[in-house]
Amino acid sequence: MGLLTRRLAMCFNVVVDKERKHFVSTEGILYFGLHCKHSQSYIFVFSKVYRMKPNAPKEDHKIEADFIMTFPAPSAPEYYYELKTCLEIPFKDSAPELASRLIATLRLPHYIIDDLTESIENFVKEKLKAEQDRIADEMVAKAIKQKNSDQIDSLVKQWEVAYKGEVTQYCSPTALSDEELFAEAYHQLVHSPMLDNVLKGIEAMSAQVNQMVTLRDAEINQLTLKQEREMQQALEALTEEQINSLANSHLEHKEMLLVQWESRLDSLKTTQRREARAWLVGLSQQAQPEQNLSALWPEFELEIPKVQTVSNQFLPIMQESFTIHLGSQMKQMHNVRLLASDMLALCDCQGQTQRIHTSLSLYSNELQGLVLFTDCQSPSTSAPFGAFQNICEKGTELHFLPVEQQLESLTSQARQAIEWRLQNNDNKSGAIRRNLQPGDCYVTKHSSLAEAHVVYHILSDDSIMSDITSRHPVILGLRNILKTSSAYDITSLTIPLLLVHEMSEEMTVVWCTKRAELVFKCIKGFMIETASWGGSELKTIQFVLPKVENKNQRFILQTNSFLYRAYRRICSRVSVQCCQAYFGCLTH
Amino acid sequence: MRQRCWRSWSNYSRWTPENRRTAQKLKTLKHPYLCSYLDIIRGKHERISVVCELFPRNLSQIMAGNKKWESKEILLLLHQVLEALSYLEANDIVHRALDPENILLGWNGEVKLFNYGLYYMTGSGKFVTFPIGQPRYLAPEILLAGPQGIPLTSNKVDIWSLGMIGAELALGDAPSSPHSAGGNMVQLGRSLRRVLSLVHCEGSVLERLARESGKEIAYEKMDSTLRDLLESCLSVVPSKRPAPSELLNSSVFDFIADQESQLGSVPKESVKRDYLGDRSLQEIFYLWQLAGGDVHGELRRQGLVRRRPPILSIGNLLLLEGKHFGATRDPATLYDPRVVPLPMESLYSRLENVPPESYFPLIETPEISSWGPSAETCCLPLVIREKDTEYQFHRIILFDRLLKAWPHQHARMLREAKQDVPPMLRAAVWAALLNVKGDVEGQYIALDKETPTPTDRQIEVDIPRCHQYDELLSSSVGHLKFKRLLKAWVVGHPQYVYWQGIDSLCAPFLYLNFNNEARAYACLAAFVPKYLQGFFLQDNWAVVQEYLAVFARLTAFHEPVLAMHMRAIAFVPELFAIPWFLTMFSHVFPLHKILPLWDRLLLGDSSFPLFIGLAILRQLRDTLLSSGFNECILLFSDLPDIDIGKCTSDSVALYCATPKSATFRQNSLKTEILDTPFDVEAQTIAELKAELCPRISGRDFMELLEPTRDKNCLQVIDIRPVDEFAKVSFLKSVNIPFVDGTDVSQAAKFAEILLENGIPRVCILHNPTYVIKHCNIKLLVRQQKL
């Protein structure tokens, strides 16, 4: 400490008076000494005042300035105290507080408090003004020197962009896009007595598509059988070369057939889409002038082919619901559903009711989201995605592009995104991949699925099967998904609990429980976090377990106990109900 | 009827909760030439709407009307604006958006500056993506810095804007048609270039402006004082431009002595006095909200909030870093400077039938009932009363008067607070109930809140966990204030240490007094000794143990079955009640429940919290009785939903049904000293724990025994042997011989038997031998000598 004071003394040109003590207090280093200035003796007080780190962002401009005040020493008026302290400009503290703090820690006479406060205030004000003027003057001086008109042009441009992009007054009034018009028309229709008509129409279209798909499958089956038969015969009778050529021709034939069907399906869908959109917009326009919609609807008898009732080939979904309350003092209520099912089966539309639900809320502020996992290497060709595509194909997509086209537009986005990543992540160690990474997520929109308007396809790789921590990219991806959901009014979300779609051999019970615990813990944290973002609340969250016979019963029990622990239930009544539900499930 | 309106503007885009907190300061600004800010409302998806005072006329309208301006008029106007600006300067606020549309004219034609807080509340524009201000009036240095802004903006930019406005007035050069839809863009570029070209102007800027608009004659004819003033305002070099406070002191304005503005006042339409309009704006706005006013609803009705269906906006690629690609911008997220007057009709019609006398209730003479709230409303549940416009109106007026007459009217205030406390004035009423007076501000300033201390770390850990669902308390400004308050408390109370829990205790006070830290501190400092004497000592074991033991005894007194059950499963108060009492329930309930609870608590004495705890147990009684130890622990680790209304009324009832001496604690703050043998003495913790029943003092006992009291309020059971009982006994007592002599431990044992049989309200007489010897003879039955 002695060394430091000597240094300080040197810095500030102080004659160290050996008689006097220096001491250290929490305020920093205080030094009392005799100081000769203008042949007058000063007692010199130096202090460095610490203040709490201001929470303001770091880029805030600030300077430091030495505040000095002199006043006669109380006991010996011929001496002067000189108080010197370093202040930050702009001064964010309060002057009276600083004054009383200085007086308390430096043991200065209390009567100087008013003078001290005032001189700090004035000092700070002056310094701030000087600094503001300096900056502004510099700016103007620079501009005066440069008589370059390019400079001005670019400035004007920047401002114009800023005003145009952000202020309604300057924003060019955009007409409603086709999309929005259709959205409005549709939303109105489904919330009117027309709903039934609309749904019937859509149902009919789906049925047409379904019929065609069935026909296609039948024909292809037929062809396969026929080809197999031919091949069988050929194997017995023909040479290898001939067999090869036969096989080739079979393949060609089959591909041709597939392509034909594909194009027929496509054209059917395009026509349907076009016609339906025109029909719906027309319907809503006709309905608009007359308030009484119910009077109108019987006239719209559409020719609807009889819809075949599809027998539900999926087993009833095993499920349980809980009400949980999150947050320490203010409780936020959420619904948690735990179910064992195939993820894809969940979004497969099984009938009218599900479709009503999807269509009613499509343009509302209560959307449903679903998380699917896709392989990172080849997102669009991986097996789960193929199955998902098949399900999408079954329904008629009137509102959004077919899923293949949504994907196509994605590729260009992905290129942009990767470029953005290259530019912004240069400080990160390690090479950045040239394609999307695990944890990235692409989003498709649907109107013909059950349980989902928005599907998040989160990319993952093999590491998902190993022991992962809460900092695994996929978990971070889930956080982004929750955040996005809250920003875009997705109030119900379905997540595969184990972060995989199917059970496999490596997934032991221990592995599963560990994984479930991790996911519960993280999602709970994210849900609490999202609550403060001011978006919409996540009302329902569903966790889906892969469907595996026999093992499941036992597993659901264990997962439950984690659900139990992870979301500590608060309301006793609900917890009793939960318990009942939970034990009820066990006895089944 | 003259109506005040509010406008609110809305905007979206990258507003963080932070800026709203900083903006809290705006609500405290008061100046005759400023429109006051009333509220800043955060809507869904971070849409922020600002509610403030609005006047129907603005300068831009008058300029468009081609009014001829006298130079005196202009000077007068400039002077008023300058007064407002220098007030803002003193408060470190830069307007940055000064333009004729933001200079409103009040009812008497005085200037009312508007929208002055936008730049301040957006953190100098850093929190928002939109640019602030009309380019035509922006100072050159702002434009030169580009849209990202300069690091420090001085108040001199407002002087430039003022100069521009003054020049337009003096030259008669009003901008043509400000709001043509397509023309805006063209004008934007033109005004930007115009200001930027002024930088290179070598002579007088004013002269150049005059030349550009062909008004040289007006320039020549201009009053020289005005011309000099405007020219100094329009100095291109900022350091040569005066600051508002400097300009205000210039001799130009000497002619304005006490001359009122001549800009023309609005003739009053009716002679009928608008009593409601005379109340403070805060009050009117509060009542307006109660009368069904809804700012966001109003915006929606006027077509300002219109969102695209979210599914159309959502992007199609979401990177790990959280960045979206392919999302389309919802036009509803743009900055929308439009102003929407909030209609006042519903409030006025709601309060139509209130007689003018009700605005001036008498507080010294007996009340006249027709002036106050109707008797039926007074009987409604608290929740309904708090939402009733008319009732709250009466309560606010009454409490406003009482507060002005405090502490003289302290007794009346207590009486009224028993009925309820109006939420709008809660902060001030609480401070009065806690007897906060004196130089609160000065004392708070004198406390060192900056110097690091060893408790800082703990405080920093605790604050981000304390009532963070609240927007104010979770903001960085809130955290800073929290920290200052807690540090001040620690510094101000050297006898105490920082215990976890004091943060929760501080939260309600900070929440209510967000803009008045000193009062929050004073309330906290008054609250702690009243209810938590000794709880924050370095070694608070004895205090807490005593408290909990008394709590356990009271539980046994009122809920014997529950108490015995909890005892049987060893679920002692130490396991759950410490956070209750250490934080006076502020750790276990959300703020909206703490406030009504504390309304009641503040009226009670130091024993009242015990009864609140008891009322909570009573509400959970059935669940607790059917649960074992583990379930109980789980139940209390996250307290279930408690009905606070029932809890408060229960606790009052329990409090009234308990003898004062049963709550005796040696560590409580004593208001009067009671240490005669007729009073309860301190017991050791072990003794306290050994006896399950509370003790009643001779004083309370004798009072209950008075023949004038209800017969059923006391049943004395004498457990002394028959012969002793026969010699002398208390009135109405029953003898159940249980012991020889007066062994107190035997009494405790007997009481335990009673408890096991579920008999409520059992207590043991303290010091019985002394009492029986020295008590009033009228209360005794003596053996008749035969």
UniProtKB/TrEMBL annotation, chain A:
This is Uncharacterized protein. InterPro entries: Fy-3. GO terms for cellular component: cytoplasm.
Automatic annotation (TrEMBL), chain B:
One of its GO terms (cellular component) is nucleus. Signal peptide: none annotated. Gene3D superfamilies: putative rabgap domain of human tbc1 domain family member 14 like domains (1.10.8.270), Transferase(Phosphotransferase) domain 1 (1.10.510.10), Ypt/Rab-GAP domain of gyp1p, domain 3 (1.10.472.80). Residues 420-605 form the Rab-GAP TBC domain. Coiled coil: none annotated. It comes from the Eukaryota. Pfam families: Pkinase, RabGAP-TBC. Residues 1-253 form the Protein kinase domain. GO terms for molecular function: ATP binding; protein kinase activity. SMART domains: TBC. This is Protein kinase domain-containing protein. It comes from Cloeon dipterum.
